[in-house]
Design goal:
The protein is α/β, with parallel strands linked by helices. Helices cover 43% and strands 17% of the residues. The two termini are 34 Å apart. 46% of the residues are buried.
């Protein structure tokens, strides 16, 4: 993410916090006309809570929609509205207090916090990094060494070349021999037919789509080459002011969200149907196949869904600092917390 974006985000956060609007507690307490729920024979008002996605709805988000549809949020006294990100992005909306919760990535939280942005990661959506470099099998890219002489299509982030360099260095390969171009608005399948050989993808989405299209890929997961690259992506975030002012809301929200993801782990097909009902324009075959692939990976080898390790935050931030992607070391203890997850 470019430094100019983070500069604008810092200024936005400062203005909002100074105006006294950084607390989601005050802005989220007015119930809507239909914001009622029955509890022990009594009717209680639900608290409106906004949650902002990082991108259009997909299987990274299924647990949220399941928690919404199955009434887990209502059980906690919440009426959760899942939003698309505004023009400034999800991180800006959460950091400024416009919304209390959202989806981000460890990379973004790390970059932001080293520049004064008050984002805090409160849960890992997926326990291990499912991203990597992918190429159609006819490009014969079987290892990072094979990147040499090929064309990579990206989005212009310095992180891309840094990751590529890290895994190529292991095999004595030279990243300067890769032709790196910006893919623009083209999707992976269009770009590899047009002018690139490989790109960085999340397998749960683009990789599964390739399977359904009958277009086999060679996939090099970055976590397989370095422990430092097995970071959390995506994560659920809040902001420091929310933690200070209303920790009970965070606990309630995560209790319900955890139930949603646990249900999705145990019932992937039903969970996929719930996502499709909420967002009917999504491709049914892709959602169903993606959900079956991804559901076991939400919790994976962690003791509970959402749990984050200090070593993962330390390893990745150390790597970012070594690669000069951040200007100072990260205070990892302030960047994430497991304190609000249910036991």
């Amino acid at each position: 993410m470019h430094r100019s974006k983070w500069t604008l985000l810092i200024l936005s956060c400062m203005l909002v916090l100074l105006a006294g609007c950084g607390t989601a507690k005050n802005s989220e307490t007015t119930p809507t006309a239909d914001g009622k729920a029955a509890s022990n024979g009594e009717t209680k008002e639900l608290r409106d809570v906004k949650f902002v996605l990082d991108w259009s709805p997909n299987t990274n988000h299924t647990g949220l929609y399941v928690a919404q549809a199955k009434g887990f949020y209502e059980e906690e006294g919440l009426k959760v509205d899942i939003l698309m990100p505004g023009s400034g992005g999800a991180d800006a909306m959460v950091a400024s207090g416009e919304v209390p919760f959202g989806i981000s990535y460890q990379e973004s939280v790390t970059q932001g916090r080293t520049q004064g942005v008050p984002l805090v990661s409160i849960a890992a959506v997926i326990q291990h990094n499912t991203s990597g470099f992918a190429a159609p099998v006819d490009r014969n890219i079987k290892s990072p060494k094979d990147f040499e002489g090929k064309t990579y299509g990206g989005w212009g982030s310095p992180v891309e070349e840094a990751v590529m360099s890290s895994i190529m260095d292991i095999e004595g390969a030279d990243v300067s021999k890769v032709n790196i171009i910006n893919m623009g608005e083209a999707d992976f399948f269009t770009a590899v037919k047009r002018d690139i050989d490989f790109a960085w993808i999340f397998y749960a989405w683009t990789g599964i789509e390739a399977e359904l299209r009958g277009e086999p890929l060679d996939m090099l997961y970055v976590k397989d080459y370095s422990d430092k690259l097995d970071y959390y992506t995506p994560v659920i975030t809040t902001n420091e002011q929310q933690i200070k002012d209303d920790p009970e809301l965070i606990k309630s929200f995560l209790r319900a969200t955890s139930k949603g993801y646990q249900y999705t782990i145990e019932h992937p097909e039903e969970a996929a149907d719930i996502l499709l009902k909420a967002v009917p324009e999504l491709d049914k075959d892709l959602i169903m196949a993606s959900q079956k692939w991804l559901s076991p990976k939400y919790q994976d080898d962690a003791a509970r869904w959402g749990e984050q390790k200090q070593s993962v935050w330390q390893n990745y931030s150390d790597w970012m600092y070594e690669k000069k992607l951040i200007e100072k070391p990260l205070d990892t203890d302030a960047a994430y917390t497991n304190d609000f997850l249910p036991e």
